[in-house]
Amino acid sequence: MRRLLSAFCLLLATLGAHADDWVQRRQVQASFEQVKEALVLAIENRGLVINYTSHIADMLDRTGADLGTTRRIYERAEIIEFCSARLSRQMMEADPHNIVLCPFAISIYALPGQSGKTWIAYRLPQGPAATLVGPLLRDITAEAAE
After folding, report:
1. Could you please report the per-residue DSSP string of 57-91?
2. Burial class for 115, CB neighbours closer than 10 Å (0-12, 13-18, 19+)
3. What CATH number labels 20-145?
4. pTM (predicted TM-score)
5. CA distance linking residue 45 with residue 66, whole number of Å
6. Cα-atom radius of gyration of the chain, to the nearest Å?
7. What is the pLDDT of residue 1?
8. For residue 120, which of 134, 135, 137 has the smallest C-alpha distance?
9. For residue 19, how many other CB atoms are within 10 A of its CB?
């Protein structure tokens, strides 16, 4: 089992994906705009509605001066939030505490000095919610990374 897990982790690293026990992220050889457009289409193609887009890089740039720092963390960074009424209902019927997983969120970001490279990431659902929501998040990000 350990060999299989080690091989899987090596495969993910080789493919440009990085996994921790709480996050899945991968680097895509494309511009931020291309990845964002692909992500939005991957979400909407499943009949899901985007609730909100959080402009994280803009917020950090805007508030940095007030905090006494000018270091630019991201070239661009946004979090796309969306929902599936069916999956949300199933998750919360299984465990009402799964409310913390809603809305679903996928981050896209580009780091300074990494022109043409964009990261796409999401928090890994845990417990029974992982089997309900995990495949959706995995499939959406895989489609957006193509």
Report:
1. HHHHHHHHGGGT------SEEEEEEEE-HHHHHHH
2. exposed
3. 3.30.310.70
4. 0.83
5. 40
6. 16
7. 41
8. 137
9. 14
Whether the CB-CB separation of 100 and 2 falls below 8 Å is answered with no
CA–CA distance, 36 with 80 (Å, rounded to integer): 9
CB atoms within 10 A of CB 109: 21
Residue type, 127: G
Encode pLDDT of 46-72 as tens digits. Answer: 999 999 999 999 999 999 988 999 899
**Which tokens in the block code for residue 75?**
């070239």
Question: Is the distance from CB of 37 to CB of 145 less than 8 angstroms?
Answer: no
d(CA 2, CA 17): 19
Cβ atoms of 80 and 98 within 8 Å: the answer is no
Two structure tokens written together for 14: 């080789």
Chain segment 1-30, per-residue pLDDT in tens: 444 334 333 334 434 455 578 899 999 999
